[in-house]
Amino acid sequence: MSSTAKEETNNKPQPPKNNNNGKQNNNSNGNGNAKKQARLCPGRDSYERMNFLYQASVLMAESAPALSGCYGKLMKAVGKKAVLRVEPAIKRTLCARCGVALSSSSTASYSDFRHKKLSYVEVRCKLCAFSKRYYENKKHRIRLDDPAAVVETMEFN
């Protein structure tokens, strides 16, 4: 064997030595982090699909309201099947009956009513004429706005 062939065999990268007697370590191959992330949020794929459908519904609201309604209903169905909660702020932007994304310019009309003791905002869907009233009570707080009610917050990176 020539001296260059010996140098080439010496320069080849050597596989890492395992000191755990044949047992595979989850942290060495990078799968440990993925498994931990999967344990933290079991419905991540459903949340991602719901997010995509919501964005598509909002995008299609002005150009094709019927398609927007279809995407909105499908988002609700995915959440219901996976038993996942939708944030109240997102629920308020979708029509409860037809599922279309409510935007003030094209798919909804907003009316503000003020009486002596009662005041509310009425949102009326222009497609199905469904109306929803949101009362303005000073004592009322949304449960998610209360820091004591939030058990954990999941962040998707």
From TrEMBL:
Entry-linked Pfam families: Rpr2
Keywords: Metal-binding, tRNA processing, Zinc
Transmembrane regions listed in the UniProt entry: none
Extent of Basic and acidic residues compositional bias: 1-10
Positions of region (Disordered): 1-39
GO cellular component, one term: nucleolar ribonuclease P complex
One Gene Ontology term from the biological process aspect of the record: tRNA processing
GO molecular function terms noted in the UniProt entry: metal ion binding
Superkingdom of this protein's organism: Eukaryota
Compositional bias (Low complexity): 17-35
Record has tRNA processing as a keyword: yes
The keyword Zinc is assigned to this record: yes
Similarity section: Belongs to the eukaryotic/archaeal RNase P protein component 4 family.
The protein, known as: Predicted protein
Native species: Culex quinquefasciatus
Gene: 6050414
